[in-house]
Amino acid sequence: MKVLLASAEAAPFAKVGGLADVVGSLPAALGRLGVDARVVIPGYGFIDHVEHQIEPLFSFDLRHRLGVNEVKVFCCRRDNTAFYLLQSPPYFGSEGEVYSRWDWDMERFIYFNQALMAFIAQLNSQTGWLPDVLHANDWHTSLLPFLIRDHGDDDSWGRLAAVISIHNIAYQGKDAGGFLWQAGMHGRHDPDLLELGLTDNLLGIGIAYSDMVSTVSPRYAEEIKYGYTGYELAPLIARRADRLRGILNGLDVASWDPAGDPNLVVNFSAEDFERKRPHNKRYLQSFSRLPVDVDIPLVGIVSRLAAQKGFDLALPALRNILARRDLQVVVLGAGEPDLEYAFWRLDQDFGDKASAFLQFEGALAQQIYAGCDIFLMPSHFEPCGMGQMMAMRYGALPLVRETGGLADTVENYDDGEADAGTGFVFQWQEREAVEGTLNWALDVYEEKPAAWRRMQGRAMRRDFSWTNSAGDYIELYEQACANLRA
């Protein structure tokens, strides 16, 4: 089976969120199961071609409603996977970041979908490679299923199954009608789109025209059928429920491995973490300008600072507990200005207990995972989440809300000898719920060290590799092909 994954992001070339981690690591796992999986992304200007050994492959002219643009195709191999990068100024090739203004992003990603169709045709004609399945990801590439069906009278396109993965349904590419008209797109006449008023919603178009739809955890697949989580697309999702699958994201366990991570001061595993892991906590405390004492519980946060992440609940809870208990907090993240200010203020008000790094830096993130005791992730909603998996792999116990992938991956402590549990889970979206659960976790840390260590060992041994999920994706692709034939 041949699969082409199309995305706006793919690690390590261009990464903003979890989308990049999935697209960057899933293809290698598919390859180990016999699938010829390849990836295509925009050739952003900030990508270092020398560092990644990226070479030119071919180029072609793309004629579209606004004129003619040259598309340069570059290629490299990583983990035995071919990655293609498309440059086509002014849309892609000179920018310093993945995303820009809303209106420009709408125009350039619609163009990217058109360029991708031409690229697939060129790849077939110049190299003889044509995918059996085209796997779109999020709204940035969600026009592909529609464009494939729009070319359905051509035998090559008629045999190509389309799949779309929803990584976060909150981002949909809404109000795209004017941009689609400008790009010369044909009308979207799917009855459900027309009835629900979604003909100008890019993600909705992708869902309506795909042979199968996936999202990044089983729990999230259920949640997006309802308006609270699925927003305007919930009715469409419910109508497509027979074609929807929730497949839990995996981790690149070779990269996220505390036994070999070069960013740690002392490496450790599930067999020797009790002796070796505390060295990383001491280093993190020292680096964060906090008192160095392994007995003080340390809460870590590594996150995009956004309303979705539940910090409106966590910040007042942290303030109350910091004022009353012996506790340390280390935060790494950037995002919405009001949340950045709130964490800066926490740092200033509790300088000997809290330290905030308002940026993102990969090595420090891994040091936090390896050094903190509790990893706080109180999200209002979380399609899958990777942070809680990384934290568990590095021996930190997550404290999470029961939603989406957090509910699928974190087992709540049994409040006993830890015969069950890999973390602490709360349900209600209330400050009191975060505060009460955090106090509970601190009590366990201080009063039941043996139970805590049992949970750490269990968490570190959880299998979050792509092996199982990659098999689920193969079944998804096979079902998409069967639906297309039917």
Kindly list the characteristics that best describe this protein.
2 domains; Rossmann fold; alpha/beta; 486 residues; 9-stranded mixed β-sheet; single chain
In short:
With 486 residues, the chain is of the alpha/beta class.
Write the layout of secondary structure elements.
Elements: E1 2-6, H1 18-32, E2 36-42, E3 55-64, E4 67-78, E5 81-87, H2 102-127, E6 133-137, H3 144-150, H4 155-158, E7 161-166, H5 177-182, H6 191-196, H7 202-209, E8 212-215, H8 218-223, H9 227-230, H10 234-239, E9 244-246, H11 273-287, E10 298-302, H12 311-324, E11 328-332, H13 337-349, E12 354-357, H14 362-371, E13 374-377, H15 387-393, E14 397-401, H16 404-409, E15 424-426, H17 431-447, H18 449-461, H19 467-485
Parallel strand pairs: 1-2, 1-6, 2-5, 6-7, 7-8, 8-9, 10-11, 10-13, 11-12, 13-14, 14-15
Antiparallel strand pairs: 3-4, 4-5
The domain count comes to 2
Radius of gyration: 23 Å
CATH top level label of the largest domain: Alpha Beta
**Shape verdict:** globular
Class by SSE composition: alpha/beta
Number of strands: 15
- Count of individual helical segments: 19
Uncertain regions spanning at least 5 consecutive residues = none
- The CATH topology of the largest domain corresponds to Rossmann fold
| CATH architecture call of the largest domain | 3-Layer(aba) Sandwich
- Strand order in the largest sheet: 3-4-5-2-1-6-7-8-9
CA-CA gap between termini: 19 Å
How many strands, which pairing sense, and closed or not: the largest β-sheet?
Answer: 9 strands, mixed
Query: What integer is the average pLDDT?
Result: 96
What proportion of the residues form beta strands (DSSP E)?
15-25%
- Share in helix: 40-55%
CATH superfamily of the largest domain: Glycogen Phosphorylase B
